[in-house]
Amino acid sequence: MRIAVFSSKNYDRTFLDAAAERTDGRHQFTYLDGRLDKQSALLAKGHDAACAFVNDRLDRQVLGILAGEGVRLIALRSAGFNHVDLEAARKEGLTVARVPAYSPDAVAEHTAALILSLNRKIHKAYARVREGNFALEGLLGFDLRGRTVGIVGTGKIGLCMAGIMKGFGCELIAHDPKPDPQMENLGGRYVDLDELFERSDIISLHCPLTPQTYHLIDHQAIGKMKDGIMLINTSRGGVVDARALIAGLKSGSIGSVGLDVYEEEGDLFFENLSSKMIQDDVFARLLTFPNVLITGHQAFFTREAMTAIAETTIANITSFEENGVALHEVSVEKLA
Ligand code: NAD
């Protein structure tokens, strides 16, 4: 198959080429730097598949163009598929495949890194020590042991996260419409969302972005949380209302925030914009808080995860070529 790989960076090429070499190397990849949108979709002409990442646009119009150019398969290099109009894909006769699990550990470990860094102010200490400032004022943290961690979404990543936090001696509470007995095996307890907001010292979000979880963390939710709450989001930006976060940070009701995702990250993340002005005033405001730590959607970014993403993407493509069915399809029918 010929595959147009959108939003591809050098690291995507490295891992996809290496995975292709380990299989039979039968597919041809065209690497395109740009994000997939209605203009760049035309570049898929002559390709059987479009391979897309989290900030590519896969709305009705783009899917229509891709189908018109002869694309039959959308191979997502992500687990999340909230950016794909599945109904439109079905109408266009496009198969959509994803990488459902590559390394939940990668994301959970990065989440734990955000918690530890924020709590012990590693980001501040790093800068201070390099400038010869060894003062400890402003670096006071708290013991994790005995703290209550609220996990929203106990799927693959949420469960890994629960295991890590159990290791720190935390009390685990969780919320998920589909409770998993493994959570209880870890000593965790399912509670309703209000109780989770009220009782947690740290809240970590691991649910997908859906109409139900859009702005799950808003003014009202923040109002129910303990003063000084640490809030971590490594799921999808849209789960959190960033304006409500800013209000909570300004009033001091939120103690600290760790974000790997941001609702409007599409115009920012994965690019080096160091010589450009950030136009997003909400994001720029978030960056001004010393108790906010933001990483640019890198939680997945480990060697193991990149290898697994490349291998599963190729397996999806090969299966589609051989059987007309991808290994890990997502469709409106499957979600129903
Ligand atoms: P998963 O499908 O295994 O788990 C998601 C869980 O969320 C499920 O148990 C589901 O029942 C639950 N859920 C659904 N609606 C909910 C709601 N309203 N409230 C609470 N829980 C709800 O997915 P996963 O592999 O654990 O990934 C979780 C999310 O992490 C993904 O959807 C994706 O958005 C995000 N993610 C981020 C990165 C990153 O690099 N930052 C990488 C991979 C995945």
From TrEMBL:
Q: Top enzyme class of this protein?
A: oxidoreductase
Among SUPFAM superfamilies, the record links this protein to: Formate/glycerate dehydrogenase catalytic domain-like, NAD(P)-binding Rossmann-fold domains
User: What sections of the protein cross the membrane?
Assistant: none
Keywords for this protein: NAD, Oxidoreductase
Q: Where is the D-isomer specific 2-hydroxyacid dehydrogenase catalytic domain?
A: 3-330
Q: Which GO molecular function annotations are given, in alphabetical order?
A: D-lactate dehydrogenase (NAD+) activity; NAD binding
Q: Where is the D-isomer specific 2-hydroxyacid dehydrogenase NAD-binding domain?
A: 113-299
Which InterPro entries does the entry mention? D-isomer_2_OHA_DH_cat_dom, D-isomer_DH_CS, D-isomer_DH_CS1, D-isomer_DH_NAD-bd, D-LDH-like, NAD(P)-bd_dom_sf
- Has the keyword Transport been applied to this entry? no
Q: EC number(s)?
A: 1.1.1.28
| Pfam families, alphabetized | 2-Hacid_dh (PF00389), 2-Hacid_dh_C (PF02826)
Family that this chain belongs to = Belongs to the D-isomer specific 2-hydroxyacid dehydrogenase family.
Protein name stated in the entry = D-lactate dehydrogenase
Organism per entry: Novosphingobium marinum
The upper taxonomy is: Bacteria, Pseudomonadati, Pseudomonadota, Alphaproteobacteria, Sphingomonadales
